[in-house]
Write a structure and sequence with these properties.
Length: 151
């Protein structure tokens, strides 16, 4: 089962992992969802775990490990530039997964494109998550600014 999840994580973490591995090299290709829009990124550095004093400067980033949507599922960020909740690209990684109820309700699960959608699916018990990066995913805490997608 871990191998299956590792492959799904590698596909879903896509751009975020590439950006973290290629520090300083910007990618303007779609790599994650935030506020219903795709974003590119530029990896910079891993960060230490937040403290009680700076936890508010991190935004959650959700890596969905078991999406079966044929269009693929990129990570979902809480906020992006232009959203008052955006903290500039400091991330706390969460592992998220569709529950059995989620698969039963949807068959092929939808692509989640916003934090608001993620919370709705969680509220109905279709999606669950926990703090921490999945195996093969991005660092648990890292800095990675979001860049507009350029075709």
């Amino acid at each position: 089962m871990k191998i299956k999840y590792a492959l799904l994580v590698a596909a879903s973490a896509g751009m975020v992992m590439t950006a973290a591995a290629n520090k300083g090299k910007p990618s303007f290709s779609p790599g994650l969802w935030a506020d219903g829009q795709t974003w590119g990124s530029k990896g910079t550095t891993e960060l230490p775990a937040p403290t009680a004093h700076n936890i508010g400067s991190y935004d959650p980033l959700f890596v969905i490990i078991n999406s079966n949507n044929p269009d693929g599922q990129m990570p979902v960020a809480e906020a992006a530039p232009g959203n008052v909740a955006f903290n500039g690209g400091r991330w706390l990684t969460y592992t998220a997964w569709w529950t059995d109820d989620g698969f039963a309700a949807y068959g092929t699960v939808p692509v989640i494109t916003s934090y608001a959608d993620l919370l709705v699916y969680h509220m109905y018990g279709y999606l669950d998550f926990e703090l921490g990066s999945p195996e093969g995913g991005p660092p648990p805490y890292f800095q990675c600014p979001l860049l507009p997608v350029k075709e």
